[in-house]
Specification:
Layout (H helix, E strand, L loop, with lengths): L1 H23 L7 H23 L6 H21 L1
Helix pairs in contact: 1-2, 2-3
C-alpha cells in the first residue's frame, strides 16, 4: 500500500508539473478531470505539493477542497487498514 501511494503521488506531482509547462507553452493540456482522478486514487498529497511547487491551480478553490477531501479519505482508509 505504501509503494502504491508513493507512486500515485509521484505521478500526480509530475502531472501538475507537465500541465503547468504545457500551460506556459500554450500546448494541449492535461484535463482537470484527469488531475482530479489522480487525486481521487491516492495522489492528493502529490497534488497539493505540485500546486505549491509549480504555482499551478492555486487559485481554484475546487482543487484545494477536493484534494483535501481525498487526503482525508485516504487517511481514514489507512487508519482502518492498519
Amino acid at each position: 500500500m505504501i509503494w502504491y501511494l508513493l507512486g500515485i503521488n509521484l505521478i500526480t506531482f509530475v502531472s501538475y508539473g507537465i500541465d503547468k509547462f504545457k500551460a506556459i507553452k500554450n500546448r494541449y493540456r492535461i484535463s482537470e478531470y484527469t488531475l482530479f482522478i489522480l487525486s481521487f486514487f491516492g495522489g492528493g498529497i502529490g497534488a497539493i505539493i505540485g500546486m505549491k511547487v509549480f504555482h499551478h491551480k492555486t487559485r481554484k478553490l475546487l482543487f484545494w477542497l477536493l484534494n483535501i477531501i481525498f487526503i482525508i479519505g485516504w487517511a481514514l482508509i489507512l487508519i482502518e487498514c492498519f
